[in-house]
Amino acid sequence: MIRLRQIAAASSRDLLILLGVVAVLALMPLGVSSFTLSVATAALIFALAGIGWNVLSGFAGQFSFGHAAYFGLGAYTVAVTFTKYSISPWLGLLLGGLVAAIFGLLTGWISFRFGLKGAYFALATFALAELLRLTFNNFDYVGSGVGIAIPLAGGDSWGTLQFENTPAIRYFVALGLVALGTLAVIVIKRSRAGSRMLAVREDEDAAASLGINPLRAKLGAIAISGFITAVAGGYYVMFLMFIDPDLAFGPFISVVILLRPIVGGVGTIWGPIVGAAVLSILGEVTRSLVRDPPSFLQVIEGVNGLDQVMFGLILVLVIIRAPDGVIGLFRRFRKRSSQ
Amino acid sequence: MRGRSRAAVWAGLAVLVAVAVPQTAWWDLNHTVFAQAVVSGLLIGGVYSLVAMGLSLVFGVLDIINFAHGALMTITIYVSYLLFQNYGVDPYVSLVITIPLMFVVGVGIQRFAINPVMDAPVHNQLLLTLGIAIIIENLALVLFTGTPRSIELAYARNEFDLGVVNLDFPLRVFGAVVSLPKLIAFLVALLLAGVLYLLMQRTQLGTAIRASAQEPEGAELVGIDVRRIYTITFGIGAACVGAAGSLVLPFLFVSPTAGSTFTIIAFVVVVLGGMGSIQGALIGGLVIGLTQELTQLFVPGSSKFLGVFIVFLAVLLFRPEGILGKARR
Fold this sequence. Notes:
The structure holds two protein chains of two kinds.
Chain A: H1 2-10, H2 12-26, H3 28-31, H4 34-59, H5 68-85, H6 89-113, H7 118-137, E1 148-149, H8 167-190, H9 192-202, H10 204-209, H11 214-240, E2 242-243, H12 245-249, H13 251-264, H14 271-291, H15 306-321, H16 325-338
Antiparallel strand pairs in A: 1-2
Helix pairs in contact in A: 2-8, 4-8, 4-11, 4-13, 4-14, 5-6, 5-11, 6-11, 8-9, 8-11, 9-11, 13-14, 13-16, 14-15
Chain B: H1 2-20, H2 25-62, H3 69-87, H4 95-114, H5 122-144, E1 160-161, H6 162-165, E2 177-178, H7 180-202, H8 204-214, H9 216-221, H10 226-248, H11 261-273, H12 278-298, H13 305-318
Antiparallel strand pairs in B: 1-2
């Protein structure tokens, strides 16, 4: 308890920011259309997945290129337990998190024991996600390639986590999950386990010489990381009401998950949320620009793929010009102006 | 000596299997299918080798995970396609255009996009190349739409039976069909592998590239401009995948994502063969080609990539330096 109180005292600024961010985001349903609200809900879900990714790849420094594995395991756990055993999706979210954490511990133990790091670890995580995708594609119990559709339980209900007619509540649940995830990350970062992760990221050998067990620190990170990302995957199913192997485990999902924290700032508490905000706004702007361009750009109206080209260009520019993400850019700017 | 005796054991096992399997009832029923799987596997494996060689160079020398590799292939696929459709240029003739063109494209990408992030963490480099891939793929989508296209070579129709050619061959690969474009792609891949090998081993440039890969600072000290070598290496890597794009055109559907499907396979081959090893990429490509075809044969209904990824994980765990790579641990 004392330890927790110390952490709370040390991170009072982050806790205040969290409160402020949640308060501002909670006002959103008042002023926007239900379409914008569902875009925002999806953005929050992937922000949560990114928060999970950030624990392993940002704090513990083990770059994962296959977080779709955890996302998909969470998604399928919710879908299977709900459709086949009528287990409440709330419990499903927890179960999915546990399944993903166990998967992370097993695969992580093997990978780290064999000394995989850097690019090799990234490629191994990618291969694992692909193996899951290919396996689920041929696994009749989970609907093979067709996937699983969540039947409408009828009516909006907290019990079934279905909010077909009340998108605002669906949005609030996503916001609540993101707040919980961020809270968890704030605590982890200031906890002893978090310090061990950071030490291993900075210099594994030096950390080991100080008596830190690098394997345990990394395994802790992968379990927590997998859990959080799986919860995001689980809620994504209830948002989409459908899941198939490509939506759950596809390489594109892995990219989507890691994009937000990287654009926002790898290894920072607020990176995933800032990245999600920036990318959602950019995505919507480019999309609406192509859909409804100003008169001097009339030629680009409705051209398929153009928004993605712009998206790629922005990504390349961000990586070259702002390698520490938006938060890093902000910090550099502040440092310069204070000098 | 230990390595040699282990190789002898493996060779002995292989001979045993080769002698024993044809005696079984399974072989009587399936040898044509099996022969076809082996032949198809080797042929597509040759293409994989070619794609992977360029990636292996980039990965081995620059230590960059280049996720734009397959997208570079898409560029040449479209260039060769347009040359064929509009001017009737044979895809094999268009090699003289696509190879230098892609060298220039590669040099440009390295100089303006990748050199600035050479010292950045892995994830930034990966995302950068991913961004380049997104741009290329979607530019292709903008310019040519997503409609799949294909070309037909007038002389590609004469398929010939390998069985007729090798009538007395003890393995009796009867009925295994080889299409001409695939055979050409395979042979040119072998040829280019040889050229690349000589370039790396016998020329001053190759020596400089290998020096920059092994010890960048040492190379710098003896007067090698390492940045310049990196740029040239990326250009050579792009030229390899450029050649592959022209070679696969006759038997591939042209689409904006046509090249990208090769990216992951190329990574598997590179890790399997050993980073930076040309021979490794060649052997790795053939092994992966065989693996994917045999997976489909022995595990019906599964994706051909299932076996590929299992092999990939096994290699990552047990021999991350690859078949021919030097031990890193």
